[in-house]
Protein 1
Amino acid sequence: MTTADYLVELGDLTVTYDRHPALHHLTGGFARGSLTAVVGPNGAGKSTLIKAIAGLVRPAGGHVALHGLSSRDIAYMPQLAAIDDSFPISVLDATLLGHWRRVGAFGTITRAMKAAAREALATVGLEGFESRSFGSMSAGQRQRALFARVLVADSPLILLDEPFSAVDARTTADLIGLIGLWHDEGRTVVAVLHDFGQVRRYFPQALLLARRKVAWGETADVLTDGNLLAARAMSEAWDAEAPVCEDERAAG
């Protein structure tokens, strides 16, 4: 695959937290229109990768290249647990945040934008919930609202961090169906997941991380017993006392 085939290209990407490695020397790319699951042990750098692509963390080394995209073309959905559900915001207003990259902090929300938000809520099964407090809903309902926000963003690149965490089977099935529609529309979707069964059934490509790349390609070739054992061994070899990252020492 050539550079021209990639929507997102990673070149020797390294990310550190407090000068300790979180993601090391990752090279590769996500093809245009691809549907990829990012998997690996806890602390493997999966969420860090998503944040680096979204521009939310700064690489200590290497780079992320977006081909034909700007930051306004990315829809990023964080983990549900990372969202402050005590903030007093309605479900409709939370969904309207999908327009943020286009209108900014001081832009005007138009009638058309509100209509699109209501339509998105209906699509995810939350019609009639517009005035409800976001924080008053169940985890599954909040996750549906976050998917509605992604729908409103209408972005060619969609980044999802654990989109099925703490939701029931019916909600998961509905949201997986929505991801399939995005893929059919030619959007590029990258999702952090833990359920290998879901990955094997619904995601054609997979990236297996253990702070470094273990395997990247067709899901059946990535999720082998050997690769999973290697990822576990690599993860266990890292610890909180890992040495200061040489990339950041050189940069600092």
Protein 2
Amino acid sequence: MSDLKIGVDVPWITSWSEEPQTGVSRCPSVDGQLAISQDIKPGVGEPVFTRAHLFRQRRSVGEMRCPMCGEPTQEDDRWSRTARPTTAGALRAKGLGPALPPAMPDSQPLLDCGAIAPMHRACVDLGPAERLLPDDKTGRELRRFPKAWIIMPMWVEGRPPQPQGKSVAIVSFLQLIGVEGA
């Protein structure tokens, strides 16, 4: 076990070196859909700061858990430094339209948070929380997360080993979109 403390020194969603991906299984984090699975051994080995643990990431977004400490966030204490302003039209142009409500106008302002759920303000202020930011950290301002959001599963194609087998959609991670002004 590492001496590093999860939620203080290492973000809760961080993968550890002893948590390899193990294949595909039905996952409770996405209502039993097929998802990429991974061993669950937080604190064992070394933290891999550049890789989110897939199950914890999906729980973080799906349950609005702080990716730093792993505890649920409250509506009045959700903050994001990964959110990028965008619009429904821009997401539709990138092929992400099927996850958006059809009646949502292209001009609807949104916040694309990527794979990082909002954090508690106290957790944002912890130094290790900066490790949750993508490499292009420049210009990332702290934003209050909106009261409404959309969760988009990011799918990969799985192919069975037999040549005649049909491919299936498998959830890798969840992407989070905040809906401004809702």
